[in-house]
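Reviewer 2 asked us to include a model.

Predict the structure of this chain.
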Amino acid sequence: MQDHLMPTEPGPFLDRALLDTAPATGARLASQAATQLDRVMSVGPFRGEDKPIPLRPVFLPRQQYEALPRVARRLRRLMAAACHRRAATPRALAQALEWQRPGPSLWTEDMSQNRWALEMARPDFVLRDGVPQLMEFNVNSAMGGTEQLPRMDRVYWSRPDIRDAAARWPMWSHDAWEERRRLILRAGRAMGRPRPAVAMLGWEEKAGYGSEEAFADVIADLRSNGIPTFYVRPGELRVRGDHAYVGTNRIDIVLRTFVTADADQGDIDLGPLREIVRRNAALVLSPEACQLYSSKRAIAWLTEDAASGALASADRRFIQRHVPSTHVLRRDGNRLVSASGGDLSGVLREQEKWILKPFQGHSADGIVTGLSCSEAEWNAVVEEAASRGTYIAQEFIESDTMEIPLYNPVDGTSSMVKSRCVLSPLLFGEACGGILARHSGTNKGEIVNTGTGTMNSTFGWE
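Predicted model (structure tokens):
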């Protein structure tokens, strides 16, 4: 091929071979790449049932790639400041957020636990004209992507075609397991345990996603880096004296891999873990207080603070650039208003410009877009949300789209699919452990998650 026809970016360079329709070339390469990735990723959910398999990472040029964790870190700082202006303790913050403590809770007021609440975070962004726009903030040790991204990256980097592309264009990804290891060691040193013993909490379910096998590679990675790690189901934990144990092994740090609010659905026995938290017998990463910072109401506080003059002008402009206008939705007589009494009647008049989200929840639970409803349906949804007073109305962002090569496992074909994409930097302290991408075809609706599409990794390039 002549030089002037050579692709100038790694994505098109790879796509040209992956989508070659000659049976002996592209079709075989795509099938092999998809089969290899699907086999490695089968230990956990990474795509919806019968959904396509990505054939390569999402590629972002350096400037866009580096902007995501930079924006994420600053927004985390601003969100923490907004919360702490309104409450001095976790209990007071829970009250200010109207946070409903889940039934299977691990709540504690102990600051030796809660000081680590913000250390693991995954803000979700979409791009509008290339600029990151915050959708929500996930703060939890059970955030999706931490286990999946390193597995996916190892598959991608093992492929000759991707290594060939990397020889033409410098490219990189980050390792979530490495950054979490560093956080674990930092937490251990703070406890006086430079090589802390870790309990990797699993669970039982039909699909086996919480099984010991599902975490075998993660545990092997921690052990190979000098961190004693044990697969443990929560009911197997015990407290003896001042310390937590599994069998005869002392445990210093408990790594929670499930959302505690969902524990009753998975028949997870939290009794021993509650005792560990109550007696501060081990550090639980992340503590229950982390979920306060995931409240959508905290995002509304960013909008309120940017409008009130409470912030420095640079912070105010930063929020206005990266946070869609977000308001608590309430009813005051016949009026729709924000928590501060501002008029929100436009939520009804211009439904295509708004999306409703409950304060709490994950996996797009309870989220409704105006674009997905008839006028009558939207009016009913808005009325219900305003009556409850525990929903935000957020400006709907028409995100940039990108074309991704996907393999359809149902019919064995590959094609470029115009997709919406949510990009989520994984933060461990100040470090970025990679950027999770979730994408689905634009014909699948406005909400993108693993159920409607697939997880993917994001590579930077230059």
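The chain has a mean pLDDT of 93. Residues 62-86 form the longest helix (25 residues). We have added this to the supplementary material.
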